[in-house]
Specification:
globular; seven-stranded mixed sheet; 270 residues; Rossmann fold; 11 helices; alpha/beta
Length: 270
């Protein structure tokens, strides 16, 4: 498998992409957005970047700007745009409300309409007929365990060696992203380096030599797994339960590495 390499102009590309991304309404922090752009640009795998959960296009813009600059395939942005995710219900103003019009406007204004291919469907509908290789799988849809597991199972078999799998809100109170990440990724030798950036959980698919990274994943597992019993009810936490969750979460390392150090980590040199 080819090593992860950092393009010489990546910092400037990410700066440019963030300038457009920050104008879009959404839940992605700057560190998270820059991580997505870095991962999209640096992974040695070939294929599509698949985004599950687009809302108004914040991550679509970041990924689309990177794809446009480096000549990658258009971003496949899967979302029914009907505010089905409970996290988005606060944005629903009328029955039948949709985020699709704003999504289209935002990707057009950011100059990436030609580099984002929307699929206005549920991810389970798209997964049933999906047959293309995947370079990066970005899961930010239904955060219940059932939803996150279906998204992972539906598309993971198409992720290519060296590709990146990432979940959003893995360090929020939803059970799905953190449970799937711990159980299916951190405990599997099919994966190499793994980590958190903000609330994103990520790992590189390395089916042939993931065992070399077992100890790094185990160290992460030991701190991340402590969150599982706190979120297993899959409902909002309050009072002492919320405080205990925050204290446990604070032990999970989640800062954004420099592109150089991140590449070294994936290549097994750090």
């Amino acid at each position: 498998m080819d090593k992860v390499a950092v393009p010489h102009d990546l910092d400037g590309v990410l700066d440019d992409a963030w300038e457009m991304t920050r104008k879009v309404t959404g839940f992605l922090t700057e560190a998270e957005a820059r991580f997505l752009g870095m991962a999209a640009a640096c992974t040695p795998a070939q294929g599509d970047i698949v985004e599950i959960g687009s809302f108004k296009g914040k991550s679509s813009v970041m990924l689309g700007r990177v794809a446009r600059h480096y000549g990658l395939n258009p971003i496949v942005a899967i979302d029914p745009h009907n505010f089905n995710n409970p996290q988005l219900h606060v944005h629903r103003t009328t029955p039948g409300a949709t985020s699709f019009d704003e999504f289209q406007k935002n990707i057009k204004d950011a100059g990436v309409a030609d580099f984002v291919s929307p699929r206005r469907q549920y991810s389970t509908q798209v997964a049933g007929s999906w047959e293309r290789p995947i370079r990066m799988l970005w899961i930010d849809g239904d955060h219940s365990y059932k939803g996150a597991k279906e998204d992972f199972d539906g598309f993971f078999r198409h992720v290519q060696e060296g590709g990146i799998v990432a979940f959003h809100d893995a360090l929020h109170e939803d059970a799905g992203p953190i449970r799937v990440f711990v159980e299916e990724i951190l405990r599997s030798d099919k994966f190499g380096a793994a980590g958190f950036v903000g609330s994103i959980a990520w790992a590189q698919f390395r089916p042939n030599d993931g065992g070399r990274f077992r100890e790094q994943r185990r160290r992460l597992d030991r701190v991340a797994a402590r969150l599982l019993p706190l979120v297993e009810a899959d409902r909002e936490l309050h009072g002492l339960a919320k405080l205990r969750y925050k204290l446990t979460r604070s032990r999970v390392p989640r800062s954004l590495e420099s592109p150089k150090h991140w590449a070294e980590l994936l290549n097994g040199a750090a």
